[in-house]
């Protein structure tokens, strides 16, 4: 490995580029550097001096890295990652505040005899002023993370509208709707969460498949077409994980602030796993559809040419 290869590795490091993009940038920069080396050799410099002069005149790795990131992403991807982490932390704050606010110790069946647990000022403040819908924070976090894989304006717009199939999940968690059989059902997050996959949810998965294919037709970006699936899978998972954590903490500590969630059963685990499995199968179908669309488009272009 010569000095130019080491230099280019430092330039590309931390740019969040895909493999093909890295190879394309390296190939282009190598071409320019080789031309510079030939030029400095003609001026009488030795091979080592020509390489060093070409690297020095080309620019520092930091300057080139910033230029590559600016031309590819328009803004550094690390800010998208920071935003995603902040959304994840906000999700935890929302879940904890919803659990902790107005807690009671249930000692009897009569609510008048329940003992209220004192709310800390920070919990009260968060309850009044902080957005406490966990589904919104979960969806926003995934959208911020997927911004790392965007390359053009249409990619970013596609990410911003990718929550549409899960719009029911973004309603406040205390809204209840009357189901077909007349009983009350609470809409808390996205597609089946700790519920068995039934015929009704299959239609929702089909809608996700079609929406993912439409995003690919719009953006020509397979990763972006998976954004609705990642949002739905996150909304399916986080509630189960939080319920498991809360019930486990209650079992271990017997602290009343963790009371309120039934222990997770094997049925809950199976229902969550089966839902995620169907999500995974649907995502694979979306990728297969995208590959088929790409192949058909390429054949059509060859025919035209």
From TrEMBL:
Signal peptide segment: none
Is Transmembrane helix there in the keyword field? yes
- Write out the transmembrane intervals: 79-97, 134-150, 157-181, 193-217, 229-249, 269-290
Question: Which keywords belong to this entry?
Answer: Membrane, Transmembrane, Transmembrane helix
InterPro entries per the record? Perm_prefix_1 (IPR047928)
Q: Does the keyword Transmembrane apply?
A: yes
**Domain of life the protein comes from:** Bacteria
Q: State the protein's name.
A: Permease prefix domain 1-containing protein
Native species: Alicyclobacillus fodiniaquatilis
């Amino acid at each position: 490995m010569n000095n130019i290869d080491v230099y280019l590795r430092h330039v590309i490091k931390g740019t969040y580029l895909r493999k093909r993009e890295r190879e394309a940038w390296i190939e282009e920069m190598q071409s320019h550097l080789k031309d510079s080396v030939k030029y400095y050799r003609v001026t009488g410099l030795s091979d080592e001096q020509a390489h060093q002069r070409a690297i020095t005149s080309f620019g520092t790795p930091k300057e080139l890295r910033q230029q590559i990131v600016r031309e590819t992403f328009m803004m550094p991807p690390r800010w998208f990652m920071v935003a995603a982490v902040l959304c994840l932390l906000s999700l935890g704050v929302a879940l904890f505040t919803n659990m902790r606010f107005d807690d009671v110790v249930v000692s009897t069946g009569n609510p008048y005899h329940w003992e209220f647990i004192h709310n800390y000022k920070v919990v009260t403040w968060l309850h009044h002023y902080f957005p406490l819908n966990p589904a919104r924070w979960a969806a926003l976090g995934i959208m911020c993370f997927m911004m790392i894989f965007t390359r053009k304006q249409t990619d970013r717009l596609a990410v911003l509208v990718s929550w549409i199939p899960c719009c029911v999940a973004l309603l406040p968690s205390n809204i209840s709707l009357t189901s077909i059989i007349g009983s009350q059902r609470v809409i808390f997050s996205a597609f089946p969460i700790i519920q068995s996959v039934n015929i009704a949810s299959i239609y929702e998965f089909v809608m996700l498949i079609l929406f993912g294919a439409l995003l690919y037709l719009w953006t020509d970006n397979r990763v972006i077409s998976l954004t609705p699936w990642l949002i739905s899978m996150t909304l399916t998972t986080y509630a189960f994980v939080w319920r498991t954590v809360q019930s486990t903490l209650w079992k271990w500590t017997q602290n009343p602030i963790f009371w309120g969630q039934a222990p997770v059963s094997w049925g809950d685990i199976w229902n969550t796993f089966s839902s995620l499995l169907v999500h995974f199968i649907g995502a694979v179908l979306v990728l297969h559809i995208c590959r088929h669309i790409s192949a058909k488009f390429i054949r059509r272009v060859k025919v035209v040419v």
